[in-house]
UniProtKB/TrEMBL annotation:
GO molecular function: 3-dehydroquinate dehydratase activity
Catalysed reactions, as listed in the record: 3-dehydroquinate = 3-dehydroshikimate + H2O
Binding sites annotated in the UniProt record for 3-dehydroquinate: 45-47, 81, 212, 231, 235
Keyword Methyltransferase: no
Protein name: 3-dehydroquinate dehydratase
Lineage of source species: Bacteria, Bacillati, Bacillota, Clostridia, Lachnospirales
Keywords, comma-separated and alphabetical: Amino-acid biosynthesis, Aromatic amino acid biosynthesis, Lyase, Schiff base
Role of this protein: Involved in the third step of the chorismate pathway, which leads to the biosynthesis of aromatic amino acids. Catalyzes the cis-dehydration of 3-dehydroquinate (DHQ) and introduces the first double bond of the aromatic ring to yield 3-dehydroshikimate.
InterPro entries in the record: Aldolase_TIM (IPR013785), DHquinase_I (IPR001381), Type-I_3-dehydroquinase (IPR050146)
Pathway involvement of the protein, from the record: Metabolic intermediate biosynthesis; chorismate biosynthesis; chorismate from D-erythrose 4-phosphate and phosphoenolpyruvate: step 3/7
Subunit text: Homodimer.
């Protein structure tokens, strides 16, 4: 699988990297950042949609500067997860572009999450903006209702690759055990036949928890774990995830 280097972190080879979300207002995310920095996490995700003051750009930039100071060389992923894909806030397409564009241009983030089912104009413009400013793009899709069939998961991930994603991500909700197998098979298919872009896949909830731990075998390059508060169903604590991954690796 092709690898992507962000600061000193290489994504796409060996053990899956552990990303920990930071949620809430400035005080909460800075407190979490301090904990993440001391943990065995590889990178941090800032879920700005969970900040009550997310629509205040000066506040966001000030918080970003403080986060950058705390995290140092740890890569920072900026994410506005919309309500349509399980996030905490609703936002217009235009405002979504503006917020992400502001952060891409700030020089304070390393990766930006772009929801793949936004308009083609939004996706392409943000990818171009990110490329111009040296920010890596994670194209993502989240389905909290169901798990598409393997072929559809592969189709979406390949479409993300073709659109220019640096990393392609999909998270789905299983209704039965077979759904977890569909997700894992799709991940392996990407690893085997479409290795041009590292992929991030997960089956959510307790039923899908195994998908967060076996990325090295099936091909998911990053797993998400909680420090204090989980950002999605089925997230385990960061130290638990790291310990299990290390044992599986040995």
């Amino acid at each position: 699988m092709k690898t992507v280097k962000i600061r000193n972190l290489v994504i796409g080879g060996g053990k899956p990297k552990v990303c920990v979300p930071m949620m809430g207002d400035e005080e909460a995310v800075l407190r979490t950042a301090e904990g993440i920095k001391k943990s065995r996490a590889d990178l941090a995700e800032w879920r700005i949609d969970t900040d009550p003051d997310w629509n205040n750009e000066s506040h966001i930039l000030q918080t970003a500067e403080k986060l950058r100071s705390v995290l140092g060389d740890m890569p920072l992923l900026f994410t506005f997860r919309t309500r349509e894909e399980g996030g905490s806030a609703a936002v217009s397409e235009e405002r979504y572009r503006e917020l992400n564009r502001t952060m891409i241009r700030s020089g304070l983030i390393d990766l930006v999450d772009v929801e793949f089912f936004k308009t083609e104009e939004t996706v392409k413009s943000l990818i171009r903006e990110a490329e111009a400013h040296g920010v890596r793009t994670v194209l993502s899709n989240h389905d909290f209702e169901k798990t598409p069939q393997e072929e559809e998961i592969v189709r979406r991930l390949c479409a993300m690759q073709e659109a220019g994603a640096d990393l392609a991500k999909i998270a789905v909700m299983p209704k039965e055990e077979q759904d977890v197998i569909e997700l894992l098979n799709a991940t392996w298919t990407m690893k085997k036949f479409h290795p041009d872009t590292p992929v991030i896949t997960m089956s959510m909830g307790q039923r899908g928890m195994i998908s967060r731990l076996c990325g090295e075998l099936y091909g998911s390059a990053v797993t998400f774990a909680a420090y204090e508060k989980a950002s999605a169903p089925g997230q385990m604590q960061v130290e638990e995830v790291r310990e299990i991954i290390e044992k599986l690796h040995v």
